[in-house]
Write a structure and sequence with these properties.
By secondary structure, the chain is an alpha/beta fold. It has 13 helices and 17 strands. The chain starts with 6 loop residues before the first strand and ends in a 28-residue tail after the last strand. It binds 6-O-phosphono-beta-D-glucopyranose.
């Protein structure tokens, strides 16, 4: 697919996402000469800045991320693409002047609107764009990129979808989940479907259980307002972690095209056994960080963070167990967890194979052997590891775990931020790494019973010290031999 010139219109251009992700990603695409000739970027902001001030701000945003790779000459070229549109997005006036600007011949009529704004503003902004005929595709395509959260629960997501489909047809909507833009996440598909050795083993006959962990050592920074109304289950599990789950467990799609890929992901989500309300406590767990230490430094507990009510029971840690009721996965538990202020920052998918019979080793020193694990390190270490049991050198029959490693990137290969890939896909019209509404809808169906139960149980929440691996939730595990795997190096239990 070729990328066509386009005008990127960024709502919320002076905000955090634009600062740390969008502007640096667009700059890097320019460095890589992937922005087609004629591509322009229109930043919408309320601040009374002129073009000069915006260029200075944009330079700061890009420089902060590019660091030593910053190149003045490329930035000069990049800055010629930039245009600041001052306006209040809640006012009709902002859209009338925007329509006038975008109508000028220097702007491509292929227009992508990036809504990096509060979800409450999605509807009104779309309505005013529509009133000004900015979604009409007479002289070029019009696409809208929507950041998460897509709704707050199933009902609100459906309501938002009804509103969106009033203004746009599905081909115009790009629901972003930035995890799908991560190189290692895409590598999960290549690993599974481009290598023949594992596919015969990738099922309930050989796999004991699957774990997905996303832990962060950071807290909630200045996002108290948003986070306290969301919590870890909505913020990470319903979106990013369930997406990872679909990629690890789906059937091979017939091709990489958007619909085939998303059809298979939806089938997995639909096959997940619903959690009845009375099973919520057996299948889900929540916790909140208390004060503790991160890298030797004392840090506050969640309740002491800015904008957090002192009696909040919002979870900063959430874990759950799911079962996929299909032929491939029936009976294999999937454990997922995520948390802020945990011991280490990492995202890993860990697949634990069944234990081999020990009969062969009777009458030897071998008492216990680790099962085989396949570890997919998403970040910060991007790798694929297959752990095997091997003999220890020496006169005795002893074993140890050794791992076959395939790192995702050689040291001379650059990391590409997820947003670079996704912003380029919007120009190409490739929606395979964006969510279709039914994916979002089924993901909400899975977590809704947990959210509803937690919403009424507001008297108590377990806590964990900042800098730990979270609260004690081993009751989720089906067997005593199962435990959270927190390391990419062999662990013996
Ligand atoms: C965002 C969440 O979607 O993903 C954040 O809102 C979280 O709370 C972030 O920190 C994690 O993304 P990444 O790419 O840093 O792993």
């Amino acid at each position: 697919m070729n990328a066509e010139p386009c005008t990127y219109v960024i709502f919320g251009a002076t905000g955090n996402l634009s600062r740390i992700k969008l502007m640096p990603a667009l700059y890097h695409l320019d460095v890589a000469e992937r922005l087609p000739e004629g591509t322009r970027i229109v930043a919408i902001g309320r601040r009374p800045w002129d073009q000069q001030k915006w260029l200075e701000e944009a330079k700061d945003m890009v420089q902060a991320k590019a660091k030593d790779d910053f190149d003045d000459t490329v930035f000069q070229r990049f800055s010629e693409r930039l245009h600041y549109h001052q306006g209040d997005i809640s006012q009709a006036q902002c859209y009338a002047t925007l329509a006038e600007t975008l109508g000028k011949k220097e702007f491509s009529q292929n227009i992508a609107f990036y809504l990096s704004i509060s979800p409450a503003d999605f509807g009104p902004v779309m309505s005013m764009l529509s009133d000004n005929h900015l979604f009409t595709e007479d002289s070029g395509w019009r696409r809208v990129i929507i950041e998460k959260p897509f709704g707050y629960d199933l009902d609100s997501a459906q309501a938002l979808q009804r509103r969106i489909s009033h203004y746009l047809h599905e081909e115009q909507v790009y629901r972003i989940d930035h995890y799908l833009g991560k190189g290692m996440v895409q590598n999960v598909l290549v690993f599974r479907f481009a290598n023949v050795m594992l596919e015969p083993l990738w099922n309930r006959n050989y796999i004991d259980h699957i774990q997905i962990t996303h832990s962060e050592s950071i807290g909630i920074d200045s996002r108290g307002d948003y986070y306290n109304s969301a919590g870890a289950l909505r913020d990470m599990l319903q979106s990013h972690l369930l997406q990872l789950l679909t990629l690890v467990t789906m059937e091979p799609p017939v091709s990489m095209d958007a619909e085939s890929l998303r059809d298979e992901k939806v089938k997995v989500l639909k096959s997940i056994r619903p959690i009845p309300k009375e099973a919520v406590h057996a299948q889900a767990f929540r916790g909140q960080y208390a004060k503790g230490h991160i890298n030797g430094e004392k840090v506050n507990g969640y309740l002491e963070e800015t904008n957090i009510p002192p009696n909040s029971t919002t979870e900063t840690y959430a874990s759950m167990k799911l079962y996929i009721d299909n032929w491939r996965w029936r009976g294999v538990p999937i454990y997922m967890r995520t948390g802020k202020r945990m011991a280490q920052a990492q995202s890993t998918i860990s697949i634990c194979f069944r234990h081999p019979p020990l009969q062969f080793f009777r009458d030897t020193n071998v008492q216990c052997m680790n099962p085989n694990w396949v570890l997919l390190g998403i970040q910060p270490e991007e790798c694929i590891r297959i752990e095997m049991t091997v003999k220890e050198p020496g006169l005795e029959m002893n074993t140890r775990t050794s791992s076959l490693d395939a790192s995702f990137r050689n040291s001379d290969e650059k990391a590409i931020d997820a947003y670079e890939d996704l912003l380029l896909d919007v120009l190409k019209g490739d929606r395979s790494l964006f969510l279709r509404f039914d994916e979002v809808e089924h993901a909400w169906r899975i977590v809704d019973p947990i959210l509803q139960t937690w919403a009424i149980e507001r008297d108590f929440i377990a806590t964990y010290p900042a800098g730990s691996w979270g609260p004690e939730d081993s009751r989720l595990f089906d067997k005593e031999s199962q435990f959270w795997r927190s390391s990419l190096t062999p662990e013996c239990k």
